[in-house]
Amino acid sequence: MSEPESSDNLDHTQLVGLPRRVESHARLPLETIASNFLDQVRSGQPVDMESFIKNHPDMEDELREFLPLILAMEGWKTEKENQVVRHPLPDEFDISHLGNCKIIREVGRGGMGVVFEAEQAPINRRVAVKLLPWKFKQETEWSQQFHREARTAAQLQHPNIVSVFSFGEEDGRLYYVMPLIEGVGLDKLISYWKDIDSTVDVEDLITTVHGTEFGHENRGTNPQPGHQRKLLKRDNWAQIVKLAVQIVNAIRYAHRQGTLHRDIKPGNLLIDRSGTVWVADFGLALGRERFLDDQFFPLAGTLRYMAPEQFDGITNELTDIYSFGATLYELCTLQPAFDSTSKSEMIRQITTSNPATPRSINPNIPTRLEAVIRKCLDRNPSKRYLTANELYGELLKLVSELSNEPKGLWRQIRGWF
């Protein structure tokens, strides 16, 4: 097969020599099937090539030869786009405005971008602006996906979800505007529990991480009337499960709206001064599973919380449940389910082995809580909780048991949600 003169604007299905017995102006059955297959791949839908081929038994031989070539070319095209948009993050950003938001200061960064505290005009409200770390020189599938998923995320309205106010593009970089949550990621809480103190004052933790001026305009100079400091204690299992209930309540709501998270991990779960947990970055993982380069996505923020089937291109409600299980595992044991400095070894561990049982690390973990974690982390998706709603119900029962509170109270709370 000869090299095409230019592949930039050429459909991949045109790059393969097709049977010459058909006139060039005719739409070939093989080309039609291949185009449908490619459309599914590009839409992000899970595609089982073997099942796809078996749906066309009359062309099985041709498709077995043809479809892998299409996938290879699509992968080549995607990698070329990745090389264009990937840029290492600078140590400092010389940015004064993003859209109608005046940048005040940087408050955090990670593999998925940099977060700034900002003031949004003309209403002068304090907001958080997240700038994605890639620069797009031209329209690509990533910018299209970002806008599509940002619109979807903006429709999510839930008391445990960080909503999206607006989104846009500045100098080729994509950003979105969110409420400024005066909180810290659960990864910071885990670090403090593990290395510093078994009892953490959330107010002090936020101040330590972000400084005294963080969110000052929103909060005012004095604590609000009736404000009580929130203390979180390591090995307070009822308290930990109550945090988990809030997280899963947000996940099940989003799933009902047809939205996956795809990047559930402690760093994307914020706890505020009142003890409320906020799930951030819903639906905005931006094809995270395609970026497995350590330089741009540190292991702590990517592979560690991914379900085994995600390495086969499958992402669905059950992969969110797995990622939640890996997060809950870390909250309870204070160590990740899988831990390796090698990307390939991390993938091998996730896809072929089971993590150490939680009670082998901390015997104080309740047996029922360990059972919930292990079910979420089952390598066989069909053996996990099949819906977030099922998992939510199990956690509510567990809270009732661990809190020694009347079951009727938690039935009432469940009804409120």
TrEMBL record:
Primary residence: cytoplasm
Cell compartment(s), UniProt: Cytoplasm, Cytoskeleton, Microtubule organizing center, Centrosome; Cytoplasm, Cytoskeleton, Spindle pole
Record's keyword terms, sorted: ATP-binding, Cytoplasm, Cytoskeleton, Kinase, Nucleotide-binding, Transferase
Record protein name field: Serine/threonine-protein kinase PrkC
SMART domains registered for this protein in UniProt: S_TKc
Membership in a protein family: Belongs to the protein kinase superfamily. NEK Ser/Thr protein kinase family. NIMA subfamily.
Gene coding for it: prkC_12
Gene Ontology terms: cellular component: centrosome; spindle pole
